[in-house]
């Protein structure tokens, strides 16, 4: 049932290319008819060659010319058919791939945080390719296969019913064998696809963090884990290949039996004068012809099964639930900057409550600093504010509108965000800075870079602003990457700002200057600053001191120091000498 | 492609048995039409039913034997090809592990992953096909030709011509498509890169509302892939029709000329049927052979990509693997840099003329602005890169003299980017020493100030860690990576800006706890914060890749302007005064 489900879903994808499929089917039909006619004609020609001195050359010549025409015709349509099939298969592959990618952008962030990236990448690359290969084989072989089988049957019936019946009865045996083998190996194929995914994600994890592997001399350990997964891949791979490769010889054997059967009964019929030798010849060719599709179908069984296993993995992603729809959501037009948290509760996992009954009123233009020990939920607040995660209960509103009623894009556009983990993409420095504003002029980009104090080091890069940031961004230091992320936000000029440990990797001198630039940028706009360097947030309007998901203190720097509570402890600890 | 054959050497048995049995099957397959023509020529002529039936049964038994040999071949093929793939993957992974930072900087992860998965799969398939078809296909073709020759030497000329023409078509189409396959794999790399980027930067992408734009970029890459695929498809679509035309034209000639031969009394009707079926045989085999060639062309493109990885040799090379004897005493500096210059790429040095000494047990701080070369200096100590000029010495011996294992085993390193690996906290802690006990782990966690939150987790040190440690906050991750480095009590602990996500109180407690550890341990702290390093025995101030000051905190305050500027930027003037 499950397999049928997958096939059904695939058919929905292919459906878009109905025209080409119909065309391909028609071509297959013409091709098969021509291919089937040629043995008849050749048989007729051979019948014209009876023995020494008894050959009707005129007749034979005529027939052979016909054969030539039919051959050309068959070839032409076969070619057209392949072109159509290719178009269908490759376009379907592209559609599926685009949809998977789209899915990556539509699933809740939780899904992406919780799934090994290597495995997801494997699905969008290798698995989709497998489906494509499977489709080409399937359309090519299955179409012409079915048409050939039906066509041959018709031809055989027209020549001799009795022999045709024998063929019809023995041949399904090969299908039965193939189906049995297919069923046996389906499980190992699933296992294989799964292990392949596991292997990919291990490779992804280890190779992208090769530096740590080397630093810890973890090479041997990593190797042995890898070899263990690889050994399992061998086991399932070998088994599935073995089982599925049995299908072809088995069906060929059944077909050989059919061939022998036709030969025996045909020869006996010739002896009884029920059949001519030429007819027998063409019957034998048909027996071969008839069984050929069975052979071909079973010879691609391995590929088809791989394709089905892969399709299952792809549809598992595609059927993942999307983030909540936003049809009834409004756009955040002019953002005033009043932000309210009202009894917000949230937890990443059901077992551990993180934020409970969090309430806060932020007035437009205020600078809110959030401080507290690591793991107390500072970043989580940001995740909720940007709707990367949804609150479990309670409400966050902007200018009185609950964020759940605002379109995500519109909400996020009103924030400029700099995170502690600097993410850049594989493009030039210039493109990375202009990420949020692709139409920015070079002057604007430079101005943003200067404001972020990134201009200096960018100038020193081999190609300046045109330097390409490598795939994993390892050609820049953490601090440099962070400066680029800051420049990126500086350019956008957002209505609200979120700085989540945005300057943690930058030296303090530069940091102070960047802070000044931020202050200028944020004048009169609401901003949220998560920081651990207390020196950077002292002039915030409100400092929230968080502990275990709750606000324990709230006030300005001076007020909090006055109180002598948790904040002042944190503050004075920053100058505590570490005695030896 | 042949360079990779060493991964097949354990499968010699299968490589011989497989094709041999396939050959046997092919021989049987060739005999079948002979028996058939015998039935027609002798059985029907003489009208003997028993002749027909016995020969018919013979045909069936021949096929049964054929089936058995085919199964043996398939079994060998599955063992050898999957085994080959497995060995190749292992070797690739091992090789990648020997590469140094410099090569990894160059290659990047996505392409390594496609090479390790889809390229190896392609090669694996090629091995399976090699075993199944490499002897069978040519044998069937040559065999059919010999049989044709036996029936009529004159007519077999047609066979030869046809086979040659088909061969020519195959060769032309294939050689043209090889280039396409290489392009296709490259395009797949691009798809994988874009997907990976989208996953790792998903937060930022959503924050900047770039989904649509990224989607169209991806769609373009995916379309390009399709375009190349369709072009190569167009080319290979020619294969079948062309071979079919050639084979059928050959059949037409055979019938025509054999008609003449029969007329002259040199040939029987049954023999024509045999000739035609041999021609059909050749055609069918050629088509199979064409598939084989397609698979091999793809495989050779893949082999080139795999070999490219193997050919990368680590720039950091081990001079010897034998443990060297080192005299460790308090007179020789534990770490010494002597006129070290280094650049990642190009001629301009990223760090230059670095010289300093750190004595055994000393704590050293390295401070400087963003991009001043702090991490670079630290990366040279465990020899992640080799310096261009000068020497880096540990215990008075050049790091290039050490076997890498002996050298790196002394270090406990906490990298800038706090990365954890999927598994559990305990499995992450056991990276350095897989036999570390729970108590050792807990004590390392305590030193790293991580125990306070690990303790509260429902499963303690056995709590799960997601890929990259995403289920922990930045500060928690940092503390866990510090604990990981402390396991096995390293001689040199390197903290590369690794408390940036910690609040000051935690950071201070952390430094306090570390200072209480073994007094012989050297601690190297790279930081932007004066407070993190001001108690160090030696502080090195870097600017633009050069040392602009070194000494203790007090010394530097009076001798190094830059240092004082950094210090003042982090502290209120009253604290500086007090």
Describe the structure.
The complex is a heterodimer of chains A (580) and B (578). Chain A has 2 domains: 2-17 and 85-318, ABC transporter transmembrane region fold (Up-down Bundle), CATH 1.20.1560.10; 339-573, P-loop containing nucleotide triphosphate hydrolases (Rossmann fold). Helix content of chain A is 63%, strand content 10%. Chain A contains 20 helices and 12 strands. Chain B is 63% helix and 11% strand. Chain B contains 21 helices and 12 strands. In chain B, helix 19 (553-559) crosses helix 20. The longest helix of chain B has 50 residues, at 49-98. The N and C termini of chain B lie far apart (73 Å). The model of chain B is unreliable at 573-578 (pLDDT under 50).
What descriptors fit this protein?
heterodimer; A: alpha/beta; ABC transporter transmembrane region fold; Rossmann fold; 20 helices; elongated; B: 578 residues; alpha/beta; 3 domains; six-stranded mixed sheet; four-stranded antiparallel sheet; 12 strands; 11% strand; disordered C terminus
Question: Which SSEs are present, and which pair or pack?
Answer:
The complex is a heterodimer of chains A (580) and B (578).
Chain A (H helix, E strand, L loop, with lengths): L1 H13 L3 H30 L1 E3 L2 E2 L1 H50 L2 H6 L2 H43 L1 H10 L1 H37 L1 H6 L3 H53 L5 H23 L1 H18 L20 E8 L8 E8 L4 E5 L6 H8 L7 E6 L2 E2 L5 H6 L1 E4 L10 H5 L8 H10 L3 H6 L17 H15 L3 E5 L7 H14 L5 E4 L11 E6 L2 E6 L1 H7 L2 H8 L7
Parallel strand pairs in A: 5-10, 5-11, 8-9, 9-10
Antiparallel strand pairs in A: 1-2, 3-4, 3-6, 6-7, 11-12
Chain B lengths: L11 H35 L2 H50 L2 H7 L1 H25 L2 H16 L4 H45 L1 H6 L3 H27 L1 H25 L5 H43 L21 E10 L8 E9 L3 E6 L5 H7 L8 E6 L2 E2 L5 H6 L1 E4 L8 E2 H5 L8 H10 L3 H4 L9 E2 L8 H13 L5 E5 L7 H12 L6 E6 L2 H4 L4 E6 L2 E6 L1 H7 L1 H10 L2 H5 L1
Parallel strand pairs in B: 3-10, 3-11, 6-9, 9-10
Antiparallel strand pairs in B: 1-2, 1-4, 4-5, 7-8, 11-12
Helix pairs in contact in B: 1-2, 1-4, 1-5, 1-10, 2-4, 4-6, 4-10, 5-6, 5-10, 6-8, 6-9, 6-10, 9-10, 14-16, 19-20
């Amino acid at each position: 049932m499950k397999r049928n489900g997958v096939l059904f879903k695939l058919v929905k994808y292919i459906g878009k290319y109905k025209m080409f499929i119909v065309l391909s089917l028609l071509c297959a039909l013409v091709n098969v008819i021509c291919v089937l006619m040629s043995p008849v004609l050749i048989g007729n020609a051979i019948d014209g060659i009876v023995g020494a001195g008894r050959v009707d050359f005129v007749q034979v010549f005529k027939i052979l010319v016909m054969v030539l025409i039919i051959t050309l015709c068959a070839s032409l349509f076969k070619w057209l058919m392949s072109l159509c099939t290719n178009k269908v298969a490759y376009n379907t592959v592209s559609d599926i791939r685009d949809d998977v990618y789209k899915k990556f952008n539509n699933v809740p962030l939780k899904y992406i945080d919780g799934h090994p990236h290597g495995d997801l990448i494997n699905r969008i690359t290798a698995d989709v390719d497998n489906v494509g290969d499977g489709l080409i084989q399937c359309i090519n072989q299955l179409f012409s296969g079915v048409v050939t089988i039906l066509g041959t049957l018709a031809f055989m019936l027209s020549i001799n019913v009795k022999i045709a019946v024998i063929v019809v009865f023995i041949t399904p045996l090969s299908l039965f064998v193939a189906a049995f083998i297919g069923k046996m190996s389906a499980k190992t194929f699933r296992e294989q696809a799964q292990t392949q995914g596991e292997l990919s994600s291990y490779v992804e994890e280890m190779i992208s963090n090769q530096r740590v592997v080397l630093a810890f001399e973890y090479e041997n350990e990593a190797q042995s884990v890898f070899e263990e997964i690889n050994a399992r891949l061998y086991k399932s791979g070998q088994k599935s290949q073995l089982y599925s490769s049995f299908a072809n010889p088995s069906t060929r054997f059944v077909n050989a039996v059919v061939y022998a059967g036709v030969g025996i009964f045909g020869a006996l019929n010739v002896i009884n004068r029920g059949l001519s030798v030429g007819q027998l010849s063409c019957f034998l060719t048909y027996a071969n012809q008839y069984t050929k599709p069975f052979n071909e179908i079973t010879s691609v069984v391995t590929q088809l099964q791989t394709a089905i296993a892969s399709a299952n993995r792809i549809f598992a992603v595609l059927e993942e639930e999307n983030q909540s729809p936003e049809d009834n959501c409004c756009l955040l037009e002019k953002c005033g900057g009043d932000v309210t948290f009202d009894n917000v509760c949230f937890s990443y996992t059901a077992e551990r409550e993180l934020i409970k009954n969090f309430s806060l009123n932020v007035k437009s233009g205020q600078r809110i600093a959030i401080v507290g020990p690591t793991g107390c939920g500072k970043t989580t607040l940001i995740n909720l504010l940007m709707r990367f995660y949804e609150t479990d209960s309670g409400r966050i509103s902007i200018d009185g509108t609950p964020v759940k009623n605002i379109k995500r894009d519109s909400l996020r556009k009103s924030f400029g965000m700099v995170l502690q983990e600097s993410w850049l993409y594989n493009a030039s420095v210039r493109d990375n800075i202009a990420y949020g504003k692709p139409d920015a002029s070079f002057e604007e980009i430079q101005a943003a870079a200067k404001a972020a104090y990134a201009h200096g080091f960018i100038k020193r890069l081999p190609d300046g602003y045109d330097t390409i940031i490598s795939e994993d961004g390892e050609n820049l230091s953490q601090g440099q990457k962070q400066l680029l992320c800051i420049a990126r936000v500086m350019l956008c000029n957002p209505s609200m700002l979120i700085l989540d440990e945005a300057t943690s990797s930058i030296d303090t001198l530069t940091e102070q200057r960047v802070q000044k630039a931020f202050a200028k940028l944020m004048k009169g706009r609401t901003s949220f600053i998560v920081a651990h360097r207390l020196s950077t947030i002292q002039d915030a309007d409100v400092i929230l001191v968080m502990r275990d998901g709750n606000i324990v203190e709230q006030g300005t720097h001076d007020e909090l120091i006055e109180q002598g509570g948790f904040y002042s402890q944190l503050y004075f600890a920053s100058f505590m000498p570490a005695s030896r | 492609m042949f360079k990779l054959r060493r991964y097949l050497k354990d499968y010699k048995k299968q490589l011989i048995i497989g094709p041999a049995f396939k050959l046997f099957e092919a021989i049987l397959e060739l005999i079948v039409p002979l028996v058939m023509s015998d039935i027609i020529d002798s059985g029907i002529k003489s009208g003997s039913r028993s002749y027909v039936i016995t020969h018919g049964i013979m045909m069936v038994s021949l096929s049964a034997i054929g089936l058995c040999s085919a199964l043996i071949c398939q079994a060998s093929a599955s063992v050898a090809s999957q085994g080959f793939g497995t060995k190749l993957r292992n070797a690739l992974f091992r090789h990648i592990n020997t590469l140094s930072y410099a090569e990894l900087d160059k290659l990047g992860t996505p392409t390594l992953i496609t090479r390790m998965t889809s390229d190896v799969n392609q090669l694996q398939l090629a091995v399976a096909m090699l075993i199944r078809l490499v002897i069978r296909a040519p044998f069937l073709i040559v065999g059919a030709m010999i049989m044709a020759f036996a029936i009529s030497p004159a007519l077999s000329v047609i066979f030869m011509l046809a086979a040659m023409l088909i061969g020519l078509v195959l060769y032309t189409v294939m050689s043209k498509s090889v280039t396409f396959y290489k392009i296709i794999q490259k395009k797949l790399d691009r798809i994988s890169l874009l997907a990976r980027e989208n996953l790792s930067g998903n937060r930022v992408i959503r924050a900047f509302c770039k989904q649509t734009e990224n989607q169209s970029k991806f769609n373009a890459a995916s379309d390009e892939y399709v375009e190349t695929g369709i072009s190569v498809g167009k080319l290979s679509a020619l294969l079948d029709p062309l071979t079919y035309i050639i084979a059928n034209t050959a059949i037409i000639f055979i019938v025509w000329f054999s008609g003449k031969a029969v007329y002259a009394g040199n040939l029987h009707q049954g023999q024509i049927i045999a000739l035609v079926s041999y021609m059909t045989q050749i055609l069918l085999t050629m088509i199979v052979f064409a598939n084989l060639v397609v698979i091999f062309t793809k495989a050779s493109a893949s082999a080139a990509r795999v070999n490219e990885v193997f050919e990368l040799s680590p720039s950091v090379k081990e001079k010897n693997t034998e443990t060297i004897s080192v005299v460790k005493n308090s007179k020789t500096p534990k770490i010494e840099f002597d006129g070290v210059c280094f650049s990642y790429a190009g001629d301009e040095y990223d760090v230059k003329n670095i010289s300093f000494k750190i004595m055994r047990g000393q704590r050293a701080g390295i401070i400087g602005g963003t991009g001043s070369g702090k991490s670079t200096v630290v990366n040279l100590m465990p020899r992640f890169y080799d310096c261009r000029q000068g020497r880096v010495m540990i215990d008075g011996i050049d790091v290039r003299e050490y076997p890498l294992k002996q050298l790196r085993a002394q270090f406990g390193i906490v990298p800038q980017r706090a990365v954890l690996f999927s598994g559990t906290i305990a499995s992450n802690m056991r990276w350095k020493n897989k036999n570390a006990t729970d108590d050792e782990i807990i004590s390392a966690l305590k030193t790293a100030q991580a125990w306070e939150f690990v303790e509260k987790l429902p499963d303690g040190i056995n709590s799960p860690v997601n890929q990259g440690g995403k289920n922990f906050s930045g500060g928690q991750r940092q503390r866990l990576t510090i604990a990981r480095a402390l396991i096995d009590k390293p001689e040199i602990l390197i903290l590369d800006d690794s408390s940036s996500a910690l609040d000051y109180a935690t950071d201070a407690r952390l430094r306090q706890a570390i200072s209480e550890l073994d007094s012989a341990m050297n601690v190297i702290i790279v930081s932007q914060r004066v407070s993190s390093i001001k108690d160090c025995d030696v502080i090195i101030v870097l600017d633009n890749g050069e040392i602009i000051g070194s000494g203790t905190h007090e010394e530097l305050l009076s001798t190094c302007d830059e240092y004082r500027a950094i210090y003042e930027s982090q502290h209120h003037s009253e604290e500086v005064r007090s």
